[in-house]
Design a protein that fits this description.
The protein has 451 residues and is of the alpha+beta class. The chain is built from 11 helices and 24 strands. The structure holds guanosine-5'-triphosphate. Belongs to the TRAFAC class translation factor GTPase superfamily. Classic translation factor GTPase family. EF-Tu/EF-1A subfamily.
Length: 451
């Protein structure tokens, strides 16, 4: 296994990259056009998309169709689910996750971002549009904060639709200044943020193939492709026990069935036995594939398809975990967690009902206890047992679920110890799991006490 991993390290760096930003910022068009310029989509298919989108009166969406695959997405012109594709730059192999921008689909955006190492934040430079996305309750801020809270540290900001403002340097500088200040405030390091002026529609400054004298007169920096190539390598926890969060399940050919997802920690090879949680089934790994190519083993960071046998396909769900049977994940119905509240309108009190978003899982939860309020920068306790929490506060709370959830503590597994809380369609907090307080549901307790 070690040899295989060393072989892999000698190849190009693998990165999972999510594309985020306000609805209609041009995310799908930008990435579709980049894939086209990089030769990932053949001319015949692109021509077909152009013809078909024109017929529907949506000619400007042709490049977005590369990623927006379902009929409903194409008809509505919005991304709803996470589209996944792959491309290469000189030094990197990128698995691309195109997240929806619309606020109704934030849960899908959280699922996609939880699987990402790095992100591209797309903003619309058009007059009035940048302001809508950034200042007037748009998703630019929420997405940037969510990505940071979910562990993304490196970010490229694509200042898109520069064609609509005649490639004006002053407008670009104004946008990058405002965003730069904000991104630093929410925890991104200056060296890990970069800005690229571009146009997804005309394809300018994606790979440098399309000249634009108006841009070249003042911009001497990188193209989008060059900047993606400069992302720093991310270290993977391959020595930890195996964990994979199931993102999709399908019946392939032959015996068993397949699940796809990102390996969060550890490694796996055909012949391994794995434990499926929460069902508790023991399964055997029959085969592994990455981008439809079969592999002798796969490691943390890989987006992999695992073919398994030994259980009923109906007992595994999106959000189930595959793990090393000798070291399973923790099961919890009550946890202690550190949370940071976002810009919430209402005060949070004991008994507050929230939706708990963790990897691909969403579960109802109740805030059972407000243990303490913390100083945001030092982490010191400012107040014990506060009566309520209001916007931007940091606190330790206890959360309870009806059903056991399989998770990990942040101190043991950074990627598996993070979660988000939502309420009434808004993301209200990001949190870190500190302790598992109870691991049995009320019904389990009922069964054990009566039995
Ligand atoms: N002028 C101009 N229009 C663009 C550019 N990029 C995208 N558009 C247009 O903006 C509209 C929205 O583009 P999409 O790529 O679907 O936007 P999106 O951000 O992926 O949208 P959601 O996924 O629904 O959030 C389409 O009409 C595009 O043609 C650009 O660089 N310049």
């Amino acid at each position: 296994m070690k040899e295989e991993y060393d072989k892999r390290l000698a190849e190009k760096d693998q990165l999972n990259m999510v594309v985020i930003g306000h609805v209609d910022a041009g995310k799908s068009t930008l990435m579709g056009h980049l894939l086209y310029q990089l030769g990932e989509i053949n001319q015949r298919i692109m021509h077909k998309y152009e013809q078909e989108s024109k017929k529907l009166g949506k000619g400007s969406f042709a490049f977005a169709w590369v990623l927006d695959e379902t009929e409903e997405e194409r008809a509505r012109g919005v991304t709803m689910d996470i589209a996944q594709s792959r491309f290469e730059t000189p030094k990197k192999v990128i698995t691309l996750l195109d997240a929806p921008g619309h606020k109704d689909f934030i849960p899908n955006m959280i699922t996609g971002t939880a699987q990402a190492d790095v992100a591209i934040l797309v903003v619309n430079a058009t007059k009035g549009e940048f302001e809508t996305g950034f200042e007037l309750g748009g998703q630019t801020r929420e997405h940037a904060i969510l990505a940071r809270s979910l562990g993304v540290t490196q970010l490229i900001v694509a200042v898109n639709k520069m064609d609509t403002i005649d490639w004006l340097e002053t407008r670009y500088n104004d946008i990058t200044k405002k965003l730069g200040q904000f991104l630093k405030q929410v925890g991104y390091k200056e060296n890990d943020i970069s800005f690229i002026p571009c146009s997804g529609l005309s394809g300018v400054n994606l790979t440098g193939r399309i000249p634009e004298p108006k841009l070249e007169s003042w911009y001497k920096g990188s193209t989008l492709e060059e900047q993606i190539d400069k992302f720093k390598v991310v270290t993977r926890s391959i020595d930890k026990p195996f964990r994979l969060c199931v993102g999709d399940i399908f019946k392939g050919m032959g015996s068993g069935f397949s699940v796809t997802g990102r390996i969060v920690t550890g490694s796996v090879q055909p012949g391994d036995r794995l434990l499926v949680l929460p069902s508790g089934d023991s399964v055997a790994v029959k085969g592994l594939a990455i981008n439809d190519v079969s592999y002798p083993c796969a490691f943390a960071g890989d987006h992999v398809t695992v073919t398994i046998t030994g259980m009923d396909m109906n007992n595994i769900h999106v959000g189930s975990m595959l793990c090393d049977p000798t070291s399973p994940l923790k099961s919890a119905t009550r946890i202690k967690a550190k949370i940071v509240l976002f810009n919430v309108e209402i005060p949070i009190t004991k008994g507050f009902m929230v939706v708990f978003h963790y990897q691909s899982i969403t579960e109802p939860a109740v805030i059972k206890r407000l243990n303490s309020q913390l100083n945001k920068s030092t982490g010191e306790v400012i107040k014990n047992k506060p009566k309520c929490l209001v916007k931007n506060m940091s606190a330790v709370v206890e959360l309870e679920f009806d059903r056991p959830i399989c998770l990990e503590l942040y101190k043991d597994y950074k990627d598996l110890g993070r979660f988000m809380l939502r309420y009434s369609g808004h993301t209200i907090a990001a949190g870190l799991v500190e302790e598992v307080l109870k691991s049995k549901s009320k019904t389990d307790e009922g069964v054990s006490s009566s039995g």
